[in-house]
Design a protein that fits this description.
Blueprint: E1 2-3, H1 14-19, H2 46-60, E2 68-72, H3 74-86, E3 94-98, H4 117-124, H5 128-132, H6 135-152, E4 167-172, H7 180-183, E5 194-199, H8 205-208, H9 210-231
Parallel strand pairs: 1-2, 2-3, 3-4, 4-5
Helix pairs in contact: 2-3
Length: 240
């Protein structure tokens, strides 16, 4: 299950979906009040949004099929909150965070006015200049990014137990907004395995370097599945 960056959508992962191997199915969240769901009221409270996503995953996902959560930038924070909500009854196979600051580095998160959003977009999204130049898209995108930033500001301040699942942090080598040193601090959010990888990509890795990301994530999740099988071997039938 994938979670997009602030202002992003499920379509942000279309290139990654095409690059993944046939035995891996990609699902992506499309938040209410945004893009194709623009007619629905947007949720402005992070706890309510996280609870709805977790409930939807419990209902829709096959409990016998391993499920990993992958979030890009703001989506990494959202994915981490959903992973926490799913534990302990439906723990994720792994949490994969792309170009996302760990929550403690965002506290206190400064208030950002709508007028500051264009500059933020131009620093993090290579396609932002074209979008901002389009009168039909500009206001929609700015409103969406601002709403996502307001959700980001609601990440709880209190320290909480580490996640049970592995955490895999991936950063782009040409990302000017976050580096490997910051991404390495995701290690404190798991009691399991932690890995840190760097790919030749800008901030939005999923669209800019889909093939390389697919290879990296596929190998990481393959190792996680093997580790899970070793830790929880299938029960032997009586008489064996």
């Amino acid at each position: 299950m994938c979670f997009a960056h602030a202002g992003g959508s499920a379509a942000s992962f279309s290139a990654l979906s095409s690059a993944l191997p046939p035995d891996t199915e990609l699902w992506a969240t499309q938040l209410p009040g945004r893009f194709v769901r623009y007619r629905e009221p947007a949720l402005t409270g992070l706890p309510e949004l996280v609870a709805q996503i977790a409930d939807a995953l419990r209902s829709a996902a096959d409990p016998d099929v391993p499920m990993a959560l992958l979030g890009q930038s703001f989506g990494g924070l959202l994915a981490a909150e959903v992973a926490r909500q799913l534990e302990p009854d439906r723990p994720a196979l792994a949490l994969v965070v792309l170009s996302a600051s760990p929550p403690h580095l965002l506290r206190p998160f400064p208030a950002i006015s709508r007028e500051q959003v264009p500059d933020l977009l131009l620093r993090t999204d290579e396609g932002a200049k074209e979008v901002l130049a389009c009168a039909e898209l500009r206001d929609v995108v700015l409103d969406t990014v601002w709403a996502d930033i307001e959700l980001m500001r609601q990440v709880p301040d209190a320290e909480r137990p580490a996640l049970r699942c592995p955490v895999h942090a991936i950063v782009g080598s040409s990302d000017s907004t976050i580096g490997a040193a910051e991404m390495a601090q995701w290690q404190q959010y798991t009691e399991s395995v932690f890995t840190l990888d760097e790919l030749p990509a800008p901030h939005l890795i999923a669209s800019a370097h889909a093939a390389g990301l697919s290879d990296t994530v596929t190998e990481l999740l393959r190792s996680d599945r093997a580790r899970c099988r070793n830790n929880h071997p299938a029960r032997q039938t009586e008489g064996q």
